Batch of 2 targets.
Target 1
Amino acid sequence: MKQFTLHCILAGTLCFASCQSQENNNATTTEPAGNGTATAALPPEPQAPDSAHLIVPGERIGPLTLNMPHTAISDAMGEPDSGNAAMGKSLQFWLNQGQPQDYLAVYIVNNFDGTGSPAKVKQIQVTSPNYKTSNGISTGSTMPAIREQFGSLTPIAYYTNKQNKKVYIFDDQAEGITFEVTPPDSTCVAITVHEKGKDITATYLPIHPDTTRLRQPQQPR
């Protein structure tokens, strides 16, 4: 009797294990309804920034637009936190009070064309990562990510930052946008918008006085 009982226990155990294994297999091999092909989840699309923080190459950064009269800047941004002017050109800065290294800057030029027209915004720069292109490029983006969106980048100059490291300036002249990038991690630290198709080699935002040009400016045709 004991032997019969033992055989029954073993048979029951094996039957239970077999059923459990079959359930596990069914759970792992069950395919979704439809054509039987599972679809991998795609990463979410980058959320487009609001208009107040949008970078549009060749046009604007946030509320500031290229060729905006300097008299309209304070209406859009308020009074600047700092600035300087000389010989018909000026720089104005608006600082992020919580992150003072983050700023929005404009380069303003008076054409002295005799028409009496006000000085106009010619370049706009931002270092805050809150400002992004429609595809999510901002300061903090890497050079490979930037090249995916802007494939015609050319190094035009470099300067040495406060950490004694070289920062290279890459320009997409046709699109009207530049990126300042620090090696060796190739991370963007500043973005500048300028007029499309305009060579700014000689007129790049004069924030860093030690900037070294890598090529001579193109002569206008």
Target 2
Amino acid sequence: MSIHKMIAAHPDVAGNLNEELATAVRHAMFCAIICTSCADACSAEKMDMVQCIRSCMDCADICDATARVATRRSGSNEAVIRSLLQTCIETCEICGAECETHEQAHCQLCAEMCRECATDCRKALATID
């Protein structure tokens, strides 16, 4: 199953799929799950990971909201989509930078996902009028 196919199947899309936005939605969904998993793994670490956990939880929530709102195709709300994409970029950058400071494999994977999500959200943002 593909989120691209699901969005394209919406009657209001009518074959006019915004590929960049659909890709950003896909990566935001993945990023939300990866950040949630990283926060959980951080909570099992023996060292103080409070800031990393907070960054990951914030990022997961923002990515989830971005994906959910950007997936909706009925009506229009470009201002909110733009705002969420911008917030998602910033939040992913913050979370990625925090996770990069830790050697744990889960943090390194999370940082990589955050960078990918931020990149795709930037590309999608450029397509929203």
